[in-house]
């Protein structure tokens, strides 16, 4: 057994392990917040910036998509929101001199953490074919290069336009408008890697692919189930909402293979008593095996159906379709198979059932723990079945709550960033602008990678994000990217996608959320939509990181003018001048945005987008009713001697942006190459705590995927399961291992074996 770290980045490969914490937030979080922020921004800028987060006249936190409460605190942000802001408002800079000093071949050897730590991008940069150094380039020349490569394509479908979820509504609307006027629906986005499974399952069953609850509903719920989500790290402000819900009488069940600190106890830094004592949040912890959720909810559904008077028959009769077929499938659910699939003791499920039956109003919240499996779509449909049975959709205090990731990922979809747009949306675009948008479906993320790999796509353009690091099957994805003719990234910070490029590459530096955006028509603001369908304005206040930055809307407008030239029928110049002109068009194209400008004119006064199931118990499906569905129950099969690995986030990262090397709540310090393994499994496999292993992925294609040099940490995860951080483990997720229907990479269920790391 090797007990020493293998050679590698000495900073990153020296993890230390202490006991995990059992409570989230509290005073240490405040202290840490300020220290982290001051390191990047200095004291004065820290105070100025953090006080503007999520305030009525300030900017929307670029962290997560959790909504802001009506009554706001002066400090309406959290430790991790502050890290996201510090990362953007940092005083460090990546200048042309930096690129002159560091060839791309050298940068490609650096960790993502190192790249991100270098600071904000200040100039448009160009990597000519065959060159090893990025060089500064003027904006006009940059757009010429893109136009040159796009006009050399045989079809607009050879270009791919990716979006990450920080892009504002205004920029997103323009971006899809440009792609469609060019003639393609190739608009993959981070949703394809994220909540696509939720969108697909919900659209099919309730007719709207978004959550059906508002913040107020949480405070009225009797029971909140949080499944496959780690809010203490990824949506910390949700803990305040859960605390308030509990104070109003709600009970909470958490369903997770890991005991996550935030769900155990929450020390609210905004109330004195919270700081002192902290409140326990979870009433019942179901430590489920990875991928066991569909089986769990199916059995609960059977038990509800078999309980006299438990089904809301009136609701089922009036508002739903497919009950009989579903009920027959549910009755066939079997205790033994469920216990095997979930790894749960029978008493725990019985306790959960008692809590369900005692609750009139139930909300189910979830995130990536449910969406990134082969059977994610049927799992989420089963949750819909569960809620429909007792009439828990379309009444206060009840409903579905997929907790979205990026701060505007939901808004981007609303604006038409989607590779399979609805005919109604395309009709509205056509009517408003007078060109004929393409009707062929475009590529999602996985299909875009295949197209690049196979030489069918040649230009890759990204509005934000870090496509190469966020996508699965790192080696395949990087090779695909290198085959492109041109790769372009509109970015704020340096990342891996800038150094694994096509033959030519461009980096287009842009303004962040925190920064002042001044155009010919004056100072601008943008709008965003949170996880609960609330739309509001966001206005940056800081001086831009460099005078050479353009805003995202300005970049799209200039790109469109240059690429489309005289054949465009869209007034790009007017849109760049004044974003109100963009909002006027959004108001005419997208339902729910009527009087858009008037409704966001008053600071802090956002508005809720309509949601038929929530507002009127109306289900815009094919039958006009909510659909029960009866998919066969699945769960991942794990061969003897193997573990089921989930790839997840540490407390010190934002997706591929690594803020630091600690995962405080889980007791991991100074390192990210760790694999959490249940001590019993570790003993059975003969891997000692502190030893080093390679994670070797096993999949049906027979290709061996290897992530070398992970320190084993004995950790109380569910039996048979393991956990390690993304993106270091993306190399293990096969491109073709995706969720049925949604095509989302199954990055929470990777079968691996642990191999001793080679001694050095
Ligand atoms: N600070 C910070 N905030 C973020 C992000 C970030 O990286 N950092 N990312 C943002 C984005 S884009 C997103 S999508 C969200 C992600 O938010 P989360 O979904 O909370 O993120 P993950 O770290 O992937 O955590 C997945 C959780 O699901 C559990 N889980 C894994 N497999 C299963 C399963 O089969 N069943 C069940 N029941 N649970 C399971 C894991 O143990 C873990 O608690 O957060 C957003 N907010
Ligand atoms: N194995 C595994 N893979 C996963 C996941 C997982 O759980 N496991 N999660 C998936 C999920 S849920 C998601 S959402 C994706 C995330 O995928 P992406 O959204 O593509 O990745 P991010 O890491 O969020 O992107 C970070 C980059 O965005 C740029 N950026 C930041 N702010 C701005 C801005 O305001 N404007 C612009 N133009 N650029 C900006 C910066 O340059 C930064 O380097 O990853 C997915 N990949
Ligand atoms: Mo996400």
From TrEMBL:
Name the record gives this protein: FdhF/YdeP family oxidoreductase
Domain Molybdopterin dinucleotide-binding span(s) in chain numbering: 643-750
SUPFAM superfamilies tied to this protein: ADC-like, Formate dehydrogenase/DMSO reductase, domains 1-3
Domain Molybdopterin oxidoreductase span(s) in chain numbering: 120-490
UniProt entry keywords in alphabetical sequence: 4Fe-4S, Iron, Iron-sulfur, Metal-binding, Molybdenum, Oxidoreductase
Pfam families named among the record's database cross-references: Molybdopterin, Molydop_binding
Xref: InterPro entries: Asp_de-COase-like_dom_sf, MopB_CT_YdeP, MoPterin_dinucl-bd_dom, Mopterin_OxRdtase, Mopterin_OxRdtse_a_bac, Prok_molybdopt-oxidoreductase, YdeP_MopB
Cofactor: Mo-bis(molybdopterin guanine dinucleotide); [4Fe-4S] cluster
Family: Belongs to the prokaryotic molybdopterin-containing oxidoreductase family.
């Amino acid at each position: 057994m090797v007990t020493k770290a293998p050679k590698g980045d000495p900073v990153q490969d020296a993890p230390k392990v202490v006991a995990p914490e059992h409570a989230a937030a509290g005073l240490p979080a405040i202290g840490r917040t300020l220290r982290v922020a001051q390191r990047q921004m200095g004291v004065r800028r820290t105070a100025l910036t953090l006080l503007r987060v999520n305030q009525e006249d300030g900017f929307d936190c670029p962290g997560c998509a959790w909504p802001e409460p009506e009554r706001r605190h002066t400090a309406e942000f959290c430790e991790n929101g502050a890290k996201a802001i510090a990362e953007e408002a940092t005083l460090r800079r990546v200048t042309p001199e930096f690129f002159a000093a560091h060839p791309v071949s050298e940068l490609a050897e650096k960790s993502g953490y190192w790249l991100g730590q270098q600071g904000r991008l200040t100039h448009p940069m160009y990597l000519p074919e065959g060159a090893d150094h990025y060089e500064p380039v003027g904006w006009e020349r940059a757009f010429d290069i893109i136009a040159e490569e796009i006009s050399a394509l045989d079809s607009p479908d050879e270009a791919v336009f990716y979006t990450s979820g920080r892009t504002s509504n205004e920029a997103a609307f323009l971006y899809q408008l440009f792609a469609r006027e060019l003639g393609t629906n190739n608009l993959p986005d981070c949703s394809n890697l994220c909540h696509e499974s939720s969108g697909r399952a919900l659209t099919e069953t309730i007719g709207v692919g978004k959550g059906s609850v508002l913040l107020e509903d949480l405070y009225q719920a009797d029971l909140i189930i949080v499944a496959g989500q780690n809010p203490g790290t990824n949506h910390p402000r949700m803990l305040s909402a859960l605390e308030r819900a509990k104070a109003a009488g709600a009970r909470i069940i958490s369903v997770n293979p890991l005991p996550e600190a935030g769900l155990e106890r929450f020390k609210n830094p905004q109330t004195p008593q919270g700081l002192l004592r902290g409140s326990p949040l979870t009433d019942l912890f179901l430590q489920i095996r990875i991928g066991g959720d569909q089986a769990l909810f199916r059995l609960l559904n059977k038990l509800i159906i078999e309980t006299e008077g438990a089904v809301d028959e009136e609701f089922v009769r009036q508002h739903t379709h497919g009950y009989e077929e579903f009920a027959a499938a549910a009755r066939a659910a079997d205790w033994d198979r469920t216990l095997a699939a979930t790894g749960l003791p029978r008493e725990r499920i019985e306790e959960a059932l008692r809590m369900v039956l005692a609750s009139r109003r139930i909300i189910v919240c979830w995130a990536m723990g449910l969406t990134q499996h082969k059977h994610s779509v049927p799992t989420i449909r089963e949750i819909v079945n569960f809620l429909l049975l007792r009439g828990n959709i379309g009444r206060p205090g009840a409903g579905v709550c997929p907790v979205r990731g990026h701060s505007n990922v939901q808004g981007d979809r609303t604006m038409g960033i989607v590779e399979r747009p609805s005919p109604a949306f395309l009709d509205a675009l056509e009517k408003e602008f007078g060109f004929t948008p393409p009707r062929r479906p475009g590529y999602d993320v996985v299909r875009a990678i295949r197209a690049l790999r196979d030489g069918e796509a040649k230009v890759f353009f990204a509005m934000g994000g870090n496509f190469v690091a966020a996508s699965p099957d790192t080696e395949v994805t990087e090779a695909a990217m290198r085959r492109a003719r041109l790769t372009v990234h509109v970015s704020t910070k340096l990342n891996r996608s800038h150094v694994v490029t096509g033959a030519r590459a461009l980096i287009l530096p842009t303004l962040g959320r925190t920064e002042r955006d001044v155009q010919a028509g004056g100072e601008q603001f943008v709008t965003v939509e949170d996880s609960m369908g609330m739309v509001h304005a966001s206005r940056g206040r800081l001086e831009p990181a460099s005078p050479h930055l353009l805003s995202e809307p300005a970049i799209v407008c200039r790109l469109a003018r240059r690429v489309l030239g005289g054949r465009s029928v869209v007034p790009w110049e007017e849109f760049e001048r004044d974003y109100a002109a963009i909002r006027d068009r959004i108001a005419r194209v997208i339902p729910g945005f009527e009087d858009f400008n008037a409704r966001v004119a008053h600071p802090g006064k956002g508005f809720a987008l309509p949601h038929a199931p929530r507002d009127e118990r109306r289900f815009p499906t094919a039958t006009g009713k909510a659909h029960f569905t009866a998919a066969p129950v699945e769960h991942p099969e794990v061969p003897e001697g193997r573990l089921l690995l989930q790839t997840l986030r540490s407390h010190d990262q934002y997706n591929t942006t690594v803020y630091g090397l600690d995962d405080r709540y889980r007791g991991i310090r100074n390192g990210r190459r760790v694999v959490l393994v249940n001590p019993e499994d570790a003993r059975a496999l003969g891997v000692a705590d502190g030893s080093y292993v390679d994670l070797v992925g096993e999949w049906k294609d027979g290709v061996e995927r290897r992530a070398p040099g992970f320190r084993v940490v004995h950790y109380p995860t569910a039996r048979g399961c393991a956990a390690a951080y993304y993106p270091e483990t993306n190399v293990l997720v096969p491109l073709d291992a995706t969720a049925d229907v949604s095509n989302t990479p199954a990055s929470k269920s990777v079968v691996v074996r642990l191999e001793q790391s080679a001694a050095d």
